[in-house]
Design goal:
Blueprint: H1 2-14, E1 29-32, H2 35-38, H3 47-55, E2 60-61, H4 84-87, E3 95-98, H5 102-109, H6 115-121, H7 130-140, E4 144-148, H8 164-180, E5 184-187, H9 211-225
Parallel strand pairs: 1-2, 1-3, 3-4, 4-5
Helix pairs in contact: 3-9
InterPro entries: SGNH_hydro (IPR013830), SGNH_hydro_sf (IPR036514)
Keywords: Hydrolase, Signal
Signal peptide: 1-22
Length: 227
């Protein structure tokens, strides 16, 4: 039942095209990634839209629910932005905000026995894999990168609770990438929910962020971007 629910949710949201931007005028911030970023877009409350409101400036949003990193297999979602690297477009970006990898681990290996998939995303020393390659490309183009982790559900159960251990290892590797590159910031979301049992930061599915959760993520991103 859990898998059917997840697939239905992705089917409903993956078909949503990315908006041209949150706010008006040329943007210096680009958001790419999966449903962590794209959720609540129909309500005008996605992470990018909340970030635009927080900073008072336009934010370009190319994130798509269901997006994956291309690890050489069949993408878990369809469309021009189905893989996160395809969402990135060269431009006059000061910042590129991104997440990703969760769908590869959930749908590629069920969050269990995921060593090969995790290594293909980011190696243990954070020097190889789809994520370091994309970050290196963005950095070479002149932008700084903020890479977020994923939400956790302390004090209550989630349909993806079993993804916690592999998610923790992904966080550790992203932190190593942060340490290697002064222009890349890893934003851990492990403690975004301040009180165990507080479900207000999650949508009803207890997987994705609620509008409050998206706003809280955006506030943390804004604190990094502000001079």
């Amino acid at each position: 039942m859990t898998w059917r629910l997840l697939l239905c949710l992705l089917a409903l949201t993956a078909c949503m095209s990315a908006p041209p931007g949150a706010g008006t005028g040329p943007a210096r911030i680009l958001v790419i990634g999966d449903s962590l970023m794209a959720w609540n877009r129909l309500r005008g409350a996605s992470v990018a839209e909340a970030l635009a409101a927080e900073l008072g400036e336009p934010v370009k949003d190319n994130s798509v629910s269901g997006a994956v990193h291309d690890l050489g297999g069949k993408p878990a979602a369809q469309g021009s932005h189905a893989t996160i690297a395809r969402q990135y477009r060269r431009g006059n970006w000061d910042w590129v905000v991104m997440d990703g990898g969760g769908n590869n681990l959930l749908f590629g290996c069920g969050c269990r026995g995921c060593g090969p998939q995790l290594d293909a995303l980011i190696s243990a020393d954070a020097t190889q894999g789809a994520i370091p390659m994309l970050v290196a490309q963005i950095r070479a183009d002149g932008a700084q990168v903020i890479h977020t982790g994923y939400l956790r559900s302390p004090g209550f159960t989630s349909p993806i609770e079993h993804c916690g251990p592999i998610g923790d290892e992904l966080d550790r590797r992203l932190a190593r990438l942060d340490a290697r590159d002064p222009g890349m910031v890893f934003l851990r979301l492990l403690d975004l929910v301040p009180t165990p049992g507080d479900t207000s930061y999650h949508a009803l599915d207890r997987i994705h962020p609620s509008a409050k959760g998206s706003a809280a993520i955006a506030a943390r991103i804004a604190a990094i971007i502000r001079p």
